[in-house]
């Protein structure tokens, strides 16, 4: 799906971002600030808030994950009243709504209860420790004021102050002035009360498509708080609103990321790579030759496209196709490079940009200046490094040396592989699973980690220096994660959070089935693995047709598990994982 300058990709709608668009005033009001002139730039988003509040008072389910969207929704409602002044009733009549007060009060009551029960360690949204305090402060400044006191508030504010003190804002402005992309722009709404957002209305921060950080919320924040009207930002938001998804009940909602084109293409192609590599074998052409050729031609088109992107971007990619101000990341870069190298063995693959930018001497960070880490990202990078290592060995090259920022001397590729593999193993929890900042399910990162670690049994040369484990020891290490997988399968064959009509869900089930498919090759005599695997595949098969053919199925019937400022879903990525889980060689 392509729209000029917007990009492509299918991801879910975000009440959090929609509420931010509902706060953007018209150009006339921005100039005059007169209550008599007050109108909304995107009234359809305000209507969406009025019509789609859930019965409990939130706009996105229950629990800690609903706090960000409930705060932004409440702020949008409160700002409407404050800006309208004496014309509040008149302005409300334009929307034909007489239930504003009820909606406003329900949101307050829901937030009061949820915040009172909230342990801030239980929330995993990107940047929540920055933008939740912003919303709390902004709500207190409304007329009338809305104030929330809750047990963990003081701890949250301490975290907020600590994080703010660690962000080198002037350094970031200096980098942007040199046209160097910065990741903070994606969450710039958290800084509305910190500095004048007019400072970022320039080509150092604003993308070629008019967005700020590919984020509707961040773009809306600039339109609200910068002193001058932002025509490019307005056009961007108007376009994504006009691109109403087929499954949406009404127009007026937007996603949390615009767009996810490169990310979606790379992850889908990666998941389907096993199928495509098998189809390339001559014997498969006997089965419906024309259809197989079409599949391989489409796969090749994706590979050519990704290869061209890598060349255009000097070897480092970001997740969004039309955002030239978002920095490249190790995750999208490594997955894309892995795909290209799998299908084009003669393609050039200079690992220096990846290693020099993202390797800190122990593991790979996802973004420049990042202080945390992602297990799935490190697995993706390590998969690429091992693939390159095998190709180097096949050419008779003994070793390759790379410059590492934290080291005074160049480092061998083998040592980088060993360092990252050891780091991944050390991050496993006491219950033998891995978690990740970009995905809520342990199934995602645990499947990725086990799939990779089991492959190291074919490289005993690493095991001797990596750990005290031999091949048998590594198999024993991985077996604990396999056993956890077997224990957590639901009776209906699924895994994970419940969905609309099942004990588990298709996305998590696909990851655990893929984990067991890999495991079965290494523990072939284990009937419990085979039984669990087959049961999981039956569950996926039973739901395959509906999931593949029903518009909005994953948006409306399955849990959102991908993490940004709000949880979101990636239907095409899930579908490709399901197909990979069901494919039989």
TrEMBL record:
GO terms assigned for molecular function: magnesium ion binding; terpene synthase activity
Matching InterPro entries: Terpene_synthase-like, Terpenoid_cyclase/PrenylTrfase
One of the GO BP terms on file: diterpenoid biosynthetic process
Protein name: 10479_t:CDS:1
Organism of derivation: Funneliformis caledonium
Gene3D superfamilies according to UniProt: 1.50.10.160, 1.50.10.20
